[in-house]
Automatic annotation (TrEMBL):
Organism: Stenomitos frigidus AS-A4
Broad enzyme group: transferase
Annotated InterPro entries: Aminotransferase_I/II_large (IPR004839), AspAT/PAT-like (IPR050596), NHTrfase_class1_PyrdxlP-BS (IPR004838), PyrdxlP-dep_Trfase (IPR015424), PyrdxlP-dep_Trfase_major (IPR015421), PyrdxlP-dep_Trfase_small (IPR015422)
EC number: 2.6.1.-
CDD domains associated with the record: AAT_like
Top-level taxon: Bacteria
Chain ranges of the Aminotransferase class I/classII large domain: 31-380
Protein name (record): Aminotransferase
Keyword Transferase among record annotations: yes
């Protein structure tokens, strides 16, 4: 069978390979501590589930408008005004099948063959693949721990060519957990504006910030950047609704209309009754979001303390999301070697940094219970010590 060339261009997900191995071991009865999850471990809050059930009973089971239920588009626009200071109406919003699909729609709507898209590394695994699927060229700009894994305005400027169309920013970041300050965003916004680019801001983790950190949307930095900004987000992470597949893209009407045209011929509307659950999520009390955030904050501190006590690992403290991204440079192993051996020898599953374009790091998710964190960190400590050889004294 001759498959389309675009399939060859797309890299199979490394994270899924590790996950499959961990699941196979678990099925064999092995006690696995997994930190590979990219989703909250909480149940969807009951009032949201209830709203979707009521929608089913009320017959909200038919096709709807491709761009989304009008009431949900309105509620999302309102949220973007209230929480983020972004002046949007319902016409600036399309409801999509998750945040992932909102980005995919955007790529299809604006990328032509040969267009370049600037992606700071470490990046979320799907960004470069989506750009390629749309016929564009991902331009990866590496960052490191010294700059808190944040791209600088000079680095952004340097990566721009006449073919550059779009810059992708993700704050809080998956996998690093880093959060850009408003000053950092303003400086990047200036580069975007002076080169007449578009920027898409993936804000799916905006509600998960810690120690008083403020989430800022780059679109608020100036009137000029507002006109060039797309916001991509969804309900998955803040409301523990990963399986519901509801997200959104917001921005200039022309682009939202283009995305709607594409969606109209691909997926049509997002599952109607799931959208009614999402309406309840936005219109009810936000206490559930805070409850989950507080639980994440506690786990983050526990895992951070344990990791930094392991000689050979070092980790910057992330301000958001639910990941730690420690460096394994001192172990001398590649991230895949590290994760493979760790799974074999200590039955701990995590994601190699190479999946995010950073081979000297590993990603641990703390979206899991405290007992797993305690047991898993014990094992990780044992593993790193067993590998650290005799050349280096423990850094205690
Ligand atoms: C989880 C995630 C998304 C979107 O997830 P959906 O389930 O499609 O809403 C987008 N960006 C990043 C960085 C993520 O981690």
């Amino acid at each position: 069978m001759k498959l389309a060339k675009r399939v060859e261009q797309v890299t199979p997900s490394l994270t899924l390979a590790i996950d499959a191995k961990a699941k196979a071991l678990k099925a064999d009865g092995v006690d696995i501590c997994s930190f590979s999850a990219g989703e909250p471990d909480f149940a969807t809050p009951a009032h949201i589930v209830e709203a979707a059930k009521q929608a089913l009973d009320a017959g909200k089971t038919r096709y709807g408008a491709a761009a989304g239920e009008p009431k949900l588009r309105e509620a999302i626009a309102q949220k973007l005004q209230n929480d983020n200071g972004l002046c949007y109406g319902a016409e600036n919003v399309i409801v999509t099948n998750g945040g992932k699909h909102s980005l995919f729609n955007l790529m299809l709507a604006i990328i032509d063959a040969g267009d370049e898209v600037i992606i700071p590394a470490p990046y979320w695994v799907s960004y470069p693949e989506m750009v390629k699927l749309a016929g564009g060229t991902p331009v990866i700009v590496p960052t490191d721990e010294k700059s808190q894994f944040k791209i600088t305005p000079a680095q952004l400027q340097q990566a721009i060519t006449p073919k550059t169309k779009l810059f992708i920013i993700n704050s809080p970041s998956n996998p690093t957990g880093m959060v850009y300050t408003s000053a950092e965003l303003a400086a990047l916004a200036e580069v975007v504006v002076s080169n007449d680019l578009l920027v898409v801001s993936d804000e799916i983790y905006e509600k998960l910030v810690y120690d008083g950190t403020q989430h800022v949307s780059i679109g608020t930095c100036s009137p000029e950047i507002y006109e060039r900004t797309l916001v991509s987000s969804g309900f998955a992470k803040a409301y523990s609704m990963t399986g519901w597949r509801v997200g959104w893209l917001a921005g200039p009407v022309e682009i939202i209309r283009a995305a709607t045209r594409i969606q109209g011929h691909s997926t049509s509307n997002v599952c109607t009754f799931a959208q009614w659950g999402a309406i309840a999520a936005l219109e009810s009390s936000q206490a559930c979001v805070e409850t989950m955030r507080v639980a994440f904050a506690e786990r983050r501190q526990a895992m951070f303390d344990r990791i930094n006590a392991i000689p050979g690992l070092s980790c910057a403290k992330p301000d958001g999301a639910f990941y730690l991204f420690p460096s394994i440079a001192k172990t001398g192993m590649t991230s895949l070697e590290f994760c493979d051996a760790l799974l074999e020898e200590q039955q701990v599953a995590l994601i190699p940094g190479i999946a995010f374009g950073a081979d000297d790091c590993i990603r641990l998710s703390y979206a899991t219970d405290m007992d797993t964190i305690n047991r898993g960190m014990e094992r990780l400590d044992k593993f790193v010590r067993s590998r650290s050889g005799s050349t280096e004294a423990p850094r205690l």
